[in-house]
Amino acid sequence: MISPGGETHRRGTTTAGTVVAVTDGALWCQGFIDLHRPDAVRILDFPHAVELAQRVFGPGTEAASEWLGIQRHALRHGQEETVLTAIE
Questions:
Q1: Residue 78 pLDDT more than 90?
Q2: What average pLDDT score do residues 42-67 get?
Q3: Global pTM exceeds 0.90
């Protein structure tokens, strides 16, 4: 078995100019990225953002839909930090 660090090295992650990490936002994922490429661009995929909203506000609720709409608007206007703060 290849260790996770060995796999990132094998794939060229350590020498790549830009690394993008698409994750579910879990803390362990953030820690892994911090360890191997703290400068990586982090992307929370949309299905997990929807799941987050549903867990916080309730599945199919108006509040979840409104929250997602606000985050979508912020992302479309280059306000990524606003979205990260909202998720935290």
A1: no
A2: 87
A3: no
- Give CA 75 to chain center in angstroms: 13
Token output for 45: 């995929």
68 burial class (0-12, 13-18, 19+ CB within 10 angstroms)?
middle
Residues 13 and 1 placed together within one structural domain of the fold: yes
- Looking at residue 34, its pLDDT comes to 92
Residues of the domain holding 62: 45-88
**Cα separation, 8 vs 14, whole angstroms:** 7
Specify the 3-state DSSP secondary structure of 17: coil
Q: 37 Cβ partners below 8 Å, 6+ apart?
A: 8, 13, 14, 19, 21
Res 30 pLDDT > 80: yes
H helical segments located in 1-79? 4-10, 27-36, 46-57, 62-76
In a shared domain, residues 40 and 52: no
